[in-house]
Design brief:
alpha/beta, 6-stranded mixed β-sheet, 4-stranded parallel β-sheet, 11 helices, 12 strands, globular
């Protein structure tokens, strides 16, 4: 990249673009670049300004293509995929893209990226506020004591599902003093062995062979859902709205059914209740610090 940056630094148009960005004179329009040259200029701008960049593309396909080009230029680029909402009370649908969004939001929150790529639709979607993400993440460290039952409750509240065998992202299982967790954003699940209440060891393991791999001193667990919530809190909010509307509208049997699920300890599908979950709605641009600037494709 050093050679390419030296060539760009001699270009008058690039010099002007870089100077305007450094001075904070945004928005700026730059046109006439092919797809690969967009990645080259973005990469050079990151190196030249030292600022993290968010790039908004026209659609998901363009975002994916730009991501691949930026990675080829050696940049720590991440993508925030568009999320599909489940508003039809479906069961058993894939949460793959929701979990990818959580992983990216966590990296953005930590500043663990150079360039963030996302489509216009993804940029407009509401997501969990930064304070909720921070509260929902937690770390398990070797040598510290934990209540295993409390950890299970915390995992379930964060969207993890309990299985007999942990073999997929967002799952966990407990067998005596051993807890397996497949944290979002991790390539492999981790096995935590407890001695009483103390985390005695943490290691990665292979889901097929069950053989242990790298030993870890700690593991950070991110939420497995973009909408973590407290069941009783959501049940009360739904019930309050139904009570207020009882005289005006017929009873919503599905909503009352969700209240029963929540109060029996079962997670209801939260996409229908996004307006009730958080007092202040947030997008991805509420997560980064002030060093980030955005460019439209």
């Amino acid at each position: 990249m050093k050679f390419e940056n030296e060539i760009l630094s001699k270009d008058i148009s690039y010099q002007k673009l870089s100077a305007e960005i450094k001075s904070g004179a945004l928005p700026i329009m730059a046109s006439g670049l092919s797809e690969i040259h967009k990645a080259l200029v973005l990469s050079a701008l990151f190196d030249g300004t030292g600022k993290k960049i968010a790039v908004i593309t026209k659609d998901e396909a363009a975002a994916t293509a730009l991501l691949e080009d930026l990675i080829c230029f050696g940049k720590n680029a991440v993508i925030l995929p568009q999320r599909d909402y489940n508003l039809a009370r479906m069961q058993g649908y894939s949460r793959e893209y929701e979990q990818k969004r959580i992983d990216t939001l966590s990296k953005v929150f930590d500043g663990d990226f150079d360039i963030l790529v996302l489509s216009l639709d993804s940029a407009l979607q509401y997501t969990l506020p930064p304070k909720v993400l921070e509260k929902s993440r937690f770390k398990i460290e070797v040598g510290k004591s934990y209540d295993i039952t409390g950890l299970c409750d915390k995992l379930i509240a964060s969207g993890y599902e309990r299985y007999e065998i942990c073999d997929g992202a967002g799952q966990f299982c407990v067998r005596g003093g051993i807890m397996d967790i497949f944290p979002i954003g991790c390539k492999n699940p981790v096995r935590i062995e407890f001695w009483g209440d103390e985390a005695d060891s943490i290691s990665q393991f292979d889901i097929f062979t069950q053989r242990r791999g790298e030993t870890l001193s700690s593991v950070t667990v991110c939420p497995a859902t973009e909408l973590p919530y407290e069941k009783e809190m959501l049940a009360e909010k739904i019930e309050n709205i139904l009570t207020k509307r009882r005289k005006e509208q017929p009873a919503d049997k599905f909503a009352y059914g969700d209240i029963e699920l929540l109060r029996s300890g079962i997670r209801a599908e939260p996409d229908l209740y996004i307006p009730l979950l958080y007092d202040k709605r947030a997008t991805v641009f509420d997560h980064p610090d002030g060093a980030l600037f955005a460019l439209g494709e």
